[in-house]
Design brief:
Elements lengths: L17 H32 L8 E5 L5 H10 L6 H11 L8 E5 L5 H10 L4 E5 L6 H9 L20 E5 L4 H21 L10 H14 L6 H13 L7 H9 L11 H5 L22 H8 L8 E4 L5 E4 L2 H15 L18
Antiparallel strand pairs: 1-2, 3-4, 5-6
Helix pairs in contact: 2-3, 6-11, 7-8, 7-11, 8-11
Length: 357
């Protein structure tokens, strides 16, 4: 038998082909990738659906025109989420069709990324209340809206008496023009319904007349239960061809939409004729002197049946009503006693009809 020569080598039983070694390495690498990917997926799933970093409620504005990455950055900087990449990955994998909308949103403590996406894609932005009191002029309404920094734009002043004082829901960035349009549409609905359901025989020719008288009623009393009584007095006076003699019409004739005279009414003011001064003109003025509320409009459309022709302040914040001039003069005397020491030359009562001529 031949013997191996010195220095010769026999192949080892444990030696492996190079291709097998490379394949084994690749397999091991892929296994590690799969295991790592599994761990990464589990981590990402927990991060995406687990509690977020917020410890208390927080409002965040998502700017108009912001892309998805910009939104993610904004949320991370605000502390709503703790990782923008996980947020984007979760969005693409789980909710690729979500409609992410700009606006101001309120996020809750511990809210998950998945829930944050639901909040933004719902479009349920934070709403705020804007209340416009009854009896403001349109110029005063616009001035009030300009003071609200949540609203945008510089609107034109609407026609007097075309807005409905009410509480409106707005969102940050809403245009003032859009809110005024909403107020005008609301007023048109109220006036249309009131006109359709008005009492028969009213001395009012048009819905505009209804609003004009309602604006005077609104300025005459701040007490809700008195509006129907005041409306009845003015309706009775119109039916009898008596001058309305309403002090707020004097003020509007002098200052217009500014609304406030800034001083007491004088005897000269009362006797100076303007287009709106109902001490000087017959019937209604040419248009509203304010924006009346719904209750004043309805009070004029369906006033109670009374014989009252006069009213004057009673010293309690309300008014004393009377059918006759004699009774009215007694009420005036009582008010004068209460008013004693006040300004000289004032009319019988602030914002109330004086005795008929």
């Amino acid at each position: 038998m031949a013997k191996p020569q010195k220095g010769s080598h026999l192949p080892s039983k444990s030696a492996r082909h190079p291709a097998a070694t490379i394949g084994s390495g690749i397999f091991t690498f892929l296994v590690l990738i799969c295991v790592g990917g599994l761990f990464a997926a589990r981590y990402g799933e927990r991060a995406f659906n687990g509690p977020g970093p917020l410890t208390q409620e927080k409002a965040v504005v998502i700017p108009r025109g912001a892309g998805i990455r910009d939104m993610a950055d904004t949320l991370e900087k605000a502390g709503v989420i703790d990782n923008w990449f996980t947020f984007l990955a979760g969005l693409k994998l789980t909710k690729p069709t979500a409609n992410m909308q700009a606006g101001e949103y309120l996020f809750k403590p511990g809210q998950s990324m998945a829930s944050v996406i639901d909040t933004i894609s719902s479009g349920k932005v934070i709403q705020y209340s804007v209340t416009i009191p009854e009896g403001l002029t349109s110029q005063q309404v616009v001035a009030r809206l300009m003071e609200n920094d949540m609203l945008a734009g510089t609107p034109s002043v609407p026609l007097e008496g075309t807005l409905l004082p009410e509480t409106y829901r707005v969102v940050r960035g809403m245009s003032r023009e859009a809110l005024l349009k909403e107020m005008a549409e609301a007023q048109q609905k109220v006036v249309r319904l009131a006109w359709e359901r008005r009492a028969p025989g009213l001395p009012l020719r048009t819905p505009q007349d209804l609003v004009t008288l309602a604006s005077i009623v609104e300025k005459e009393t701040g007490q809700a239960d008195e509006r129907p009584k005041v409306a009845a007095v003015f309706i009775n006076r119109l039916n009898k061809k008596m001058k309305l003699q309403s002090d707020p019409t004097i003020i509007y004739g002098i200052v217009g939409g500014r609304g406030s005279l800034g001083r007491p009414i004088t005897r000269t003011d009362i006797s100076t004729a303007t287009a709106y001064n109902t001490y000087a003109i017959d019937g209604l003025p040419p248009g509203p002197i304010s924006n009346p509320g719904k209750d004043a409009i309805l009070a004029v459309a369906n006033p109670p049946k009374t014989s009252d022709l006069f009213f004057v302040a009673d010293g309690t914040g309300g008014h004393a009503f009377a059918e006759t001039l004699a009774d009215h003069n007694k009420n005036v005397a009582r008010w004068r006693a209460i008013e004693a020491g006040s300004r000289a030359g004032a009319p019988a009562s602030p914002g109330a009809p004086a005795a008929a001529n």
